[in-house]
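Please produce the structure of this protein holding FE2/S2 (inorganic) cluster.
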Amino acid sequence: MSETFTVTVEPLGREVEVPAGQTILEACLRAGVWLPHSCTHGTCATCKVEILDGEVDHGEASSFALMDFEREEGKTLTCCARPQSDVTLEADIDVDEELEVFPVQDYTGTIVEISDIARDIKRLRIELDRDLHFNAGQYMKVIVPGTEHVDRTWSMANSPTENRIVEFQVRNVPGGVATDGWLFKNAAVGDKVELSGPYGKFVLRTWEDKPVVMMGGGTGMAPLAAMVKHALLNEEYEGHITLYAGGRTAADLYDVDYFRELAEEYPDQFTYHACVSDEEPTEGYRGGLVTTAMEEDFDKLTGYQGYMCGSPGMVEGCLKSFMSRRLFPRDIFHEDFFNEGDKQTGLNSPLIKR
Ligand SMILES: Cc1cc2nc3c(=O)[nH]c(=O)nc-3n(C[C@H](O)[C@H](O)[C@H](O)COP(=O)(O)OP(=O)(O)OC[C@H]3O[C@@H](n4cnc5c(N)ncnc54)[C@H](O)[C@@H]3O)c2cc1C
Ligand code: FES
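Below is the modeled complex.
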């Protein structure tokens, strides 16, 4: 029988059995014990906790997200830490009471669609072996076929009411293991894929009924698409969403007609702007960055909520833009699409509280 250690999570007082080789975060999320997290790959520092008792192996934690002095002070990143003894930890558990927590589970999927939707971007639809329950904005880990358990995180773009087929929108990263090396190279309809989820704290707070402004860059549109579909099509959501989608050129944007049609169908609840930064806009598009368009439209965002998603640099730019319009940090929610390269360079913004 393989060894397990008991992790006690304070201030909840909950005990979780962690099998050998599993991270503390993974074991807790699978046991239905929510711990703060975002990237799940040791880059963002959202999952930092204090070890009150016991020993952990810090694993693959980035030296930028968990600095040497923090390791000496007894801090760790639960998404990378594996217990070496029974452990007691203290976490800052900030889960919204209205948020339904769905335990992480393993799934086997079959690819039912791979299609080109924009320059270097594919839509990947996977039929799962059973229903997945998740909150709009969350993501799954996909084990890259042909690797020794390398996993990558992709956000669901479908509404949570579509439980059986998940949709991912994925950008090719030159040299990337999952994209260049598999999805854009030899993945095919009918292939089997192992996945787990749902993960992440980037969820639409429909229960707050506040007007919402969203900014997405590239495939950063995926979780925002899930949120928009969920709010408009399936929830008794009374607020209004203004969505800014950004790309360098029109060839980099996707589902533009779909969002335009939604805006026509729900004029009181949804407004959509497609923005191109590196070419003269043609009819129906706006020129410039999403932040420029948003700042042109809004003098002040007090009373709103802001959601933003994309590369870490794009998220930082959007954060500054939201703050320039007096949106309080507590009303700003973001998902940074960190990749393995970011882990080595420490792209963590001092502006962003995690
Ligand atoms: C919460 C979350 C959600 C995400 N959702 C999406 C999504 O919906 N759609 C999407 O397209 N992406 C998303 N991403 C990004 C995604 O997880 C992957 O990072 C992306 O798909 C690239 O994976 P890859 O295996 O192809 O690239 P990787 O193999 O991870 O490589 C990425 C880059 O890092 C470099 N690199 C790799 N290892 C090292 C190293 N050791 N040292 C230096 N450089 C290195 C590579 O050369 C490459 O340039 C998300 C990320 C997060 C954190
Ligand atoms: S969730 Fe652990 S570092 Fe991002």
